[in-house]
Design brief:
The termini are far apart. Helix 3 links the parallel strand 4 and strand 5. The chain is an alpha/beta fold and 232 residues long. It is built from seven helices and nine strands, in the order αβββαβαβαβαββααβ. The strands form two sheets. A seven-stranded mixed sheet has the order 5-4-1-6-8-7-9, with helices on both faces. The longest helix has 12 residues.
C-alpha cells in the first residue's frame, strides 16, 4: 500500500462507500449444486448407482432434479462408473457433466474434481449431494441454501441432531476441503476440524438420509409412476 493510501485510510474524513438504501433487498448468494454420482455399486454387484432405476428413470436424474428444484445453479454432476452409459441414458438438462477417471479411488476424488469444476462459476457456496439417497428432496436443499443466505459458510443437514448429507461448503473452504478429501472421507475431516463453524440444519421432518448401498437397500427405490413402465 502506498503512503498516500495509508494516510487516506487513517483520515477520519474518508468514508466508506454507501451501502444499499435502508430496506433494500440484499442480493441472494448464488449456491451451486454438486452431485457425486460416480460410484460403481460394488456391494450391489457392480451396478452403477447413477443408473439404478427410481420412478422409472435413472436415479441420477432424480438426484440432479432435487438440486435444481432446491434452487441450486449451476448443477455439476460427477460421473465415474459407466459414465458413457449414464450420458447416453440419463436426461440431465441444465447440468454440467464431468468424468472422474479416478472414481475407483473413492468419493474424495469425485469431490475434488467437482469442486475444481466450480471454480470460476461465481458461486459463493455449493450444496454437495450424493446420488444414492433417494429420500432427500428439494426441501432439504432449500433449507441449506437458506442457512447460507443467513451467513453460514459451512452447513449440514441433520437428522435428530446428527450430521448427515447434503452438506453446504462456502467457496472459501473449497481448496482446503479438496486438499484433505481422500478415499471415501469426502469433506468429513474438514467439517470435523471446523465443527464450531458448522451449522446443523435439522431435516429429519422432511427427508430420509438412508442410502442405497446393499441389495437390501434397493427397497428404498420406487417403481415407475402408475401407468408408466421403466424406461418409458
Amino acid at each position: 500500500m502506498s503512503s498516500s493510501s495509508l494516510s487516506a485510510a487513517a483520515d477520519s474524513s474518508v468514508t466508506a462507500p454507501a451501502g444499499p438504501p435502508a430496506g433494500a433487498a440484499r442480493p441472494v448468494p448464488r449456491v451451486a449444486g454438486l452431485l457425486l454420482a460416480a460410484g460403481g455399486g460394488r456391494r450391489l454387484g457392480g451396478r452403477p448407482k447413477a443408473l439404478l432405476p427410481h420412478r422409472g428413470r435413472p436415479l441420477v436424474e432424480y438426484a440432479a432434479r432435487v438440486l435444481r428444484a432446491g434452487g441450486c445453479s449451476p448443477v455439476h454432476v460427477v460421473l465415474g462408473a459407466a459414465a458413457a452409459e449414464v450420458r447416453e441414458r440419463a436426461v440431465l438438462p441444465g447440468c454440467v457433466l464431468l468424468d472422474n477417471p479416478a472414481w475407483e479411488e473413492g468419493m474424495g476424488s469425485s469431490l475434488r474434481a467437482g469442486l475444481a469444476s466450480l471454480a470460476g462459476t461465481g458461486a459463493g457456496a455449493a450444496v454437495v449431494a450424493l446420488v444414492d439417497q433417494p429420500g432427500i428432496g428439494p426441501a432439504a436443499v432449500a433449507r441449506l441454501r437458506a442457512a447460507h443466505e443467513r451467513g453460514a459458510e459451512l452447513a449440514a443437514a441433520a437428522y435428530g441432531g446428527h450430521r448427515g448429507h447434503p452438506v453446504l461448503l462456502g467457496a472459501g473452504h473449497w481448496t482446503a476441503v479438496a486438499r484433505r478429501a481422500a478415499g471415501d472421507r469426502g469433506a468429513r475431516d474438514h467439517l470435523r476440524e471446523h465443527a464450531g463453524e458448522v451449522v446443523l440444519v435439522e431435516c429429519g421432518d422432511i427427508a430420509d438420509p438412508a442410502d442405497v448401498d446393499t441389495p437390501g437397500d434397493l427397497a428404498l427405490l420406487e417403481g415407475p409412476p402408475a401407468g408408466e413402465t421403466a424406461g418409458s
